[in-house]
Specification:
The chain has 850 residues and is α/β, with parallel strands linked by helices. The chain contains 35 helices and 20 strands.
Length: 850
């Protein structure tokens, strides 16, 4: 069993980690989810209009004043410098502009408001990038500039303007809006839909302004989930309030779209038991919940209720430290305030009975995260726990949350069993394919893989199209540039194979604003579905064999294979962020990269010599720490949650040992450990061996590619000197230490848990260049990866597990280049086709049944 699936109590380091606050950006998302439970249609935009920024009443007079002072001069400059035939802007400059909004004479601004504006002038000038109207005017200016040149680049700014206009920014200056509408109307008249589609990769995928300025709102699957339980709660009459209402929700949406955050919203009205086989997922939720001051309890590796631990926010009965005033010891038996219970599979029944002791069952939701974990095997140690939990479960509200959850018709036995056990049970299926980013899937030879390039046989193609249409979450693995290339071929090739319904003008009848990533991918599927059998052979030959198109978008360079020489000649293809390499033989791949890095023998021997000296110190430190752990009772989990909630720890600062409060013998041991750590020698590699450093690129990148690669942002590790010294002080294999110097971390079972904790921290902080892990690790990480490799030894992975693995990529809300690269093309074929046998569905029907 993978380390991430072991059902054991939390370590002290894991407790400490959940106390570290989430980032401000993540805090904002979590607050949106909490607010969105009561208002699923909540929507707002972080951009401020001039009125929002100045906080002055948006009266007609103030609006006109601001327009004339700040916006009209910009428009006048654009109209003068980039005058375009047919675009008349005279109404927006000079005295006539007051007539553009309904006519009539504008009253003079109040003197008090004018004084306020004058006081804000300097602040407005400094913060123009934050004010939405200036952004709109910048794009209008750029559009006119390129129109004046006769350069088609204007259409990028036109498309972006149209999408920006959809933003929910409050109180935008009406004059500016009318000017923008005029500019858009002019641009639309000169721009074909085909032109926009053919440039959709640059206009959509590579356009940073779309994500940066998008509205903040819930995903559609979150809206539906919240609506189900909000409605279920609010529809009960006072007579019914004491009766159980049961809901089984099959919650299916792509990974990285906020499913695991949803329990925080549900806890607004319900108590939630979050059960997960993978401890990292539970710990990630715990960290988020604590950051939002939710009252949580944690049950990992529990045999009885006495093993459950309350976080300090959830404590009812406790004693305080006389000196500090902080909570010293918690009575964990009183969980009446717990809002979210986080547990592993082993502890579910214990956690369930604990929560039922304080809450009626109808006010509890069991949120079972990734229930298909271990279902890809006929037999697994977790199966007995899963079946026991389902059979003895007493909670009538259950959410089964998974990106690859079997459909209703595949688990009819489970659904029938739930209905038998809970009278009047409602079954809900939530499916979503919300997707803002594309992930390119590259074959072992570097080809970009999509249905039209994979299937020469028409029947196989149509089966694939039908499967993708039913499972639209797989659309995120359709490379947009290849989708566009196919659409362009089919609509412009002149072979009249497209019916009138699928003419571009008819399909995108709403104009340029209708052209979005998801709509283009659905259009792609429709075009494939409509291809006549007799035409497919010629089309396939033209598109695939004729062009011989080899594609690796990793560096924006066509003709580059997706090789695995990741510490040498292929390093530059790993861009923007860390990469995860999945394999069943983690150590073998680690050794391969040590050998492949081509470190001279003399240099390598010197490194090993220094490591050997460090190891002697490490052994002494390790022995002392074990002795210290035996003597220092504070090394245990203690009586409460993840530590005292003093102000310093709320800010994420590490706890320090108070030497005055411990006995002299322990003090001496602490000091000796500290002295030994100070003797650890720092080891570093020359930059020529560090992937993607300037020296490394100079050695491995051909001169003819160097300039093209500069803009692709090759990613290099960022390992601090202190981290290197920390790892060198650990009693671990020498190979792990050498790999760290290259920015490579291995997620393996190791006798030293501190190594894994450091690797997790580095991964979380985006400091590692490459992580090598086994396939079960996919369930234990929410880290942001930009690229992934699947090794040849994973060819027997099930379809569901392949898609779960791919879901580790592009999890953050950042627009980068993302790729998945396989070492055996059978993995791609398996992912894009309906499986002959769905072992996950078979196991769920067997185990989730009484």
């Amino acid at each position: 069993m993978s380390l991430s699936l072991i059902q054991t109590k939390l370590s002290r380091a894991e407790w400490d980690n959940i106390e570290i606050p989430v980032s401000p950006e993540e805090h904002e998302v979590l607050q949106l989810i909490i607010d969105g439970y009561s208002d699923p249609n909540i929507r707002y935009n972080k951009k401020m209009s001039m009125f929002s920024f100045t906080k002055i009443d948006p009266t007609e007079q103030n609006e006109h004043y601001l327009y004339m002072k700040y916006f009209a001069p910009i428009i006048e400059k654009t109209a003068t410098k980039y005058a375009v035939d047919g675009l008349d802007l005279t109404d927006f400059i000079g005295s006539k502009c007051q007539l553009t909004i309904g006519g009539g004479q504008i009253k003079k601004i109040k003197s008090i408001d004018q004084l306020r504006f004058q006081n804000l002038e300097e602040n407005i000038e400094k913060n123009k990038p934050l004010i939405f109207e200036f952004l709109l005017l910048d794009f209008c200016n750029m559009m006119c500039r390129y129109l004046k040149k006769g350069d088609s680049a204007y259409s990028y700014y036109l498309y972006t303007l149209i999408q920006l206009k959809k933003a929910s920014v409050n109180a935008i200056n009406t004059y500016v809006i009318k000017y923008v509408d005029t500019a858009i109307q002019y641009g639309n008249q000169r721009t074909s839909l085909r032109h926009v589609i053919s440039n959709a990769y640059e206009f959509i995928e590579r356009n940073p302004y779309l994500l940066q300025n998008a509205d903040r709102e819930l995903y559609s699957h979150q809206k539906e989930l919240f609506s189900i339980f909000h409605k279920s709660s609010s529809s009960r009459t006072s007579e019914e309030h004491g009766k159980d209402t049961s809901n089984l929700v099959l919650y299916i949406s792509p990974t990285g779209t906020g499913k695991t955050m949803s329990p925080i919203g549900l806890s607004t009205e319900y108590r939630v038991i979050f059960v997960c086989a993978a401890r990292h997922i539970g710990l990630a939720l715990a960290k988020m919940a604590i950051s939002m001051e939710k009252k949580i309890a944690i049950a990992f590796g529990c045999d009885t209720a006495s093993d459950i631990r309350l976080h300090y926010f959830a404590a009812v009965d406790y004693t305080r430290d006389r000196r500090s005033g902080g909570i010293r010891k918690v009575d964990n038996s009183n969980g009446s305030k717990v809002e979210i219970m986080i547990c592993d599979l082993k502890s579910y029944l214990t956690a369930m009975h604990y929560m039922l002791a304080f809450n009626p069952s109808y006010k509890i939701i069991t949120f079972w995260d990734e229930p298909t974990i271990s279902m890809d095997r006929a037999d697994d140690p977790l199966h007995e726990l899963i079946q026991q939990n389902w059979r003895q479960n007493l909670i009538g509200n259950i959410v089964l949350s998974c990106a690859t959850l079997p459909r209703e018709y595949e688990i009819l036995d489970t659904i029938a069993d739930f209905r038998d056990r809970f009278d009047g049970a409602q079954i809900h299926t939530i499916t979503s394919y919300d997707c803002k980013k594309s992930i390119s899937v590259l074959s072992k030879d570097g080809y970009c893989s999509l249905p039209h390039s994979m299937f020469q046989d028409w029947d196989s193609l149509q089966e694939c199209v039908a499967f993708c249409d039913e499972n639209k979450s797989i659309l995120r693995y359709f490379d947009l540039s290849e989708v566009v290339r196919f659409i362009t071929y089919m609509t412009d090739c002149g072979k009249n194979m497209v019916t009138e319904r699928y003419h571009i003008e008819n399909y995108f009848s709403g104009g340029i604003g209708d052209i979005t990533m998801n709509r283009l991918k659905l259009f792609y599927l429709d075009l494939l579905r409509g291809i006549p059998r007799e035409s497919w052979s010629a089309i396939y030959s033209d598109l695939v064999r004729g062009s011989g198109f080899k594609f690796s978008k990793t560096a924006g360079i066509k003709g580059t294979a997706a090789g695995i020489q990741l510490t040498t000649e292929d390093a530059y293809t790993l861009t923007d962020g860390p990469t995860i390499f999945l394999t069943e033989d983690v150590n073998k791949i680690g050794q391969f990269y040590i050998q492949q890095t081509d470190i001279p023998k003399t240099v390598f021997q010197q490194i090993l010599s220094t490591i050997t000296q460090n190891n002697k110190l490490s052994d002494r430190i390790d022995r002392l720490e074990k002795d210290l752990e035996d003597k220092d009772k504070r090394m245990g989990q203690g009586g409460g949650g993840g530590g005292s909630k003093g102000e310093e720890e709320k800010k994420g600062k590490a706890k320090e040992v108070n030497m005055e409060k411990i006995n002299p013998e322990v003090q001496k041991m602490y000091k000796e450990i500290e002295d030994l750590r100070g003797q650890i020698s720092y080891i570093s590699l020359e930059s020529v061996y560090i992937p993607n450093s300037k020296a490394h690129q100079g050695r491995w990148i051909p001169k003819e590619l160097a300039k093209k690669i500069e803009s692709s942002r090759p990613y290099m590790p960022m390992i601090s000197e202190q981290t290197v010294k920390d790892i060198m002080a650990l009693a671990i294999e020498n190979s792990l230490k050498v790999l760290l110097l290259l920015g490579i971390g291995l997620f393996i079972e190791t006798p030293n848990p501190r190594y894994l904790e450091v690797m997790k921290e580095l991964a979380d902080n985006q400091q590692l260049y490459l992580i090598i892990a086994n396939s079960d690790y996919i369930y234990g990480t929410n880290y942001q990866f930009c690229h992934q490799f699947l090794a040849k030894d994973l060819v027997n992975m099930t379809q569901q597990k392949i898609i779960q693995a791919w879901g580790r990529v592009a999890r953050g809300d950042i627009q980068h280049t993302y790729t998945v690269r396989v070492r055996d093309d059978a993995l791609i074929m398996k992912a894009f086709q309906k499986p002959a046998e769905n072992i996950e569905a078979q196991n769920m029907s067997r185990l989730f049944c009484s």
